[in-house]
Amino acid sequence: MVEIPDTLHSLFSAPIEEQDGTYVVEVPSSEVDHEALSADETYRVAILESPSSTESSMQQESQQSSSQQTVSRAPLEPPVDEGEVRDVTIETIGDQGDGIAKVERGYVVIVSGAQPGDEPTIEIEQVQKNVAFASIIDSDSQAL
């Protein structure tokens, strides 16, 4: 499984844009709205290579998560619960070969046996502060 440090506050995808001779990475407002980040703080940033197909799935996921209001939670609690069933899009593969999906606030869900581009229905089996582990319960939920 992928090891995710407890100090991870947020994980999201964003393009790098040139503005007046400098390069800018725009932080989605949802990261500040959900209190994963604060506008007045300084953060360490890691840049990970991402397949170009991830961008469109991230935009779709962002739109879906904006329109889905879940049960009220404390600001930094995981946005999923054990036993919860949901549809996700697998964006990439982790170091151990497991599929990785992101849900609200960039929260990472690791799905055993999933591949990038898969859109399975999953059940959350284990929830930790910065990552959850899930299994596929229906792999035929491909919505194109």
Automatic annotation (TrEMBL):
Region annotation Disordered: where it falls in the sequence: 49-85
Biased composition (Low complexity): 49-69
Residue span(s) of domain TRAM: 79-138
UniProt-recorded name of the protein: Predicted RNA-binding protein, contains TRAM domain
